[in-house]
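Please go through this chain and its backbone structure tokens and walk me through the local backbone shapes. Keep your notes short.
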Amino acid sequence: MRLADFDFSLPQELIAQSPPAERSGSRLLHVAADQRHDLRFTQLPELVREGDLLVMNDTRVLKARLLGHKQGSGGQVEALIERITSDREALAMLRASKGARAQTRLQFGEASATVTGRHGEFFLLSFDEPVLDVLEREGRLPLPPYIEHPADSNDEARYQTVYARAPGAVAAPTAGLHFDPILIDAVRAAGARIAFVTLHVGAGTFQPVRVEDLAQHKMHEERFELSPQTAEAIIKTRAAGGRVIAVGTTSMRTLETAGLQDGLVRACTGETNLFITPGYQFKVVDALITNFHLPKSTLLMLVSAFAGVQRIRTAYQHAIDQRYRFFSYGDAMMLERCADALTE
């Protein structure tokens, strides 16, 4: 398939600039085969079944955006930390006047760092103190580029899931933003269980697909972990006839990376650059909770592979017609895995 197959026209006013007043106050479009249901997210417990397992990504978003200058010249510098590679080192995307060469010293508030090399499009930075300390003190929340206001205290609370645990992401696993403790309890009361994986969303998630032939696109790598406890929960779910429901595309990619052909997973830790496009044969996930994604994005390709290209086109047009809110702070979908998605 070609990049142009995943384009659509979205009115600017449907791009959500702020979250709803309540976390679970968003809308939910349920898509199952050729049926669509317009719901509220608080109705999610009506869609889960006893014995289902919801798998959530417990990564925590870092204050990964640093503003500063070059020591000596004073030229402005903006760094977006891609990942922390050791206690005092990190890979970052840099915007700097006249570039940044090796051994350039950078100043971010009271923190200093040295450019020590390159790794593809990223710069390797060596800080004079632990990276996590620098980010907590000097960093800013890296909101997506389509959100037009600078991050404030409300964003610091709301652009983070209530179950965030492991620091390391530069973007939120946004499907999880709809869950509050009351809704999580309601899901459990409906007979479903909850398990966690960790995938640290990288800065590459903001990068557009630049090639028309999708076979030529290379996904950025992201660090993930699937614990023995979560693997065991999936085994028990399968044995009891329950469904595995991925909360977010990051959980989906983690589960499918760790998936085995019998629908189970192996406990593992590593890097994934799994690129899911139409034609992919899903091994683990039966249903997906996700937000609405950008035109021509790899995430739109993923949901099209899961539910069917034409089904997603129709659902997105329905969402536009019904004035759903799009992207990170927007509304959600629950997609049932469709057996005919491979035949489209």
